[in-house]
Write a structure and sequence with these properties.
Blueprint lengths: L5 E2 L1 E3 L6 E2 L2 H11 L9 E2 L18 H17 L9 E10 H14 L8 E7 L5 E11 L2 H8 L10 E5 L2 E3 L10 H13 L4 H5 L3 E6 L1 E4 L2 E3 L1 E6 L8 E14 L2
Antiparallel strand pairs: 1-6, 2-3, 2-4, 5-14, 6-7, 7-13, 8-9, 8-10, 10-14, 11-12, 13-14
Helix pairs in contact: 3-4
């Protein structure tokens, strides 16, 4: 018999109404009861409190964590490539030590209170390897780009490219093309355009701009960065499946 996805609920501590996400109950608590954001518990199918491991700072062995973080940051940067479409993008790492994931979340928690509790907890069928008929999926959402940027750049080797410009497939300086022109430069550019000739600014002008968008979004068009982990996939090791989901916006320039 196929397993049906089950989403755990969150109960308001004041009026006992239930919601499917921590953000929804926090919005209700602030609007109806003037309560601040605080940790909440998720309720399972049998009204039991679902156990979710708390984020914890890793005090030692940060070298290997930073190597993993460097690879993760590089993969995020490579998602902002002109050959790829602008869309929701998900980066996966099928086997990450539990302590790395919890440390990553703990560092995010130091930057924003949005992840004081998971956004949602659900039980899903994991159809990839390892196959699980029913397993837990925990999701955290961040709506501040600076918080994600600081955590990813903690490794100190590479920077997060949140806004890049390309001329075809080559990265160019986006700020150089936006500098104001003198009157002489404008006249020279107009003559070049009329004669269909190339000029230095045209040779360096970007053909596309690509951005990593992390914000509240508008209406149903959400633009969060989502950290997802699957804690119970592996039975013999304390490893998680880790996913980072974010939105890439691409603008073609002519």
């Amino acid at each position: 018999m196929p397993f049906k996805r089950f989403s755990c609920s969150v109960r308001c501590p004041r009026c006992a109404k239930t919601w499917k996400s921590s953000k929804a109950v926090w919005r209700h608590m602030m609007a109806s009861h003037q309560l601040r954001i605080s940790p909440v518990d998720f309720i399972g199918e049998k009204e039991e409190i679902v156990d979710v491991t708390k984020p914890v700072i890793l005090c030692s062995n940060l070298l290997h964590y930073h190597e993993w973080l460097t690879t993760l940051t590089e993969r995020v940067n490579e998602a902002l490539h002109p050959a790829l479409p602008g869309r929701w993008t998900k980066i996966e790492d099928p086997c990450v030590p539990e302590k790395y994931v919890l440390h990553f979340l703990a560092e995010l928690l130091e930057q924003t209170d949005e992840i004081v509790s998971p956004h949602s907890v659900s039980y899903n069928c994991h159809r990839a390897v390892p196959y699980r008929m029913r397993t837990k999926r925990v999701s955290y959402r961040v709506h501040t780009l600076m918080a994600l940027k600081k955590v990813l750049e903690a490794q100190g080797k590479i920077k997060l490219d949140s806004n890049v410009a390309f001329r075809h497939f080559e990265k160019v300086n986006a700020s150089a093309s936006s500098t104001p022109l003198t009157m002489k430069q404008k006249i020279a550019r107009a003559k070049a355009n009329a004669s269909n000739l190339a000029y230095p600014e045209r040779e360096q002008a970007p053909t596309s701009r690509i951005s990593l968008v992390v914000s509240e979004g508008e209406g149903r068009a959400t633009r969060e960065a989502e950290v997802i982990y699957w804690p119970d996939l592996y039975k013999t090791t304390s490893s998680y499946k880790f996913q980072l989901r974010f939105y890439v916006m691409k603008c073609e320039l002519r």
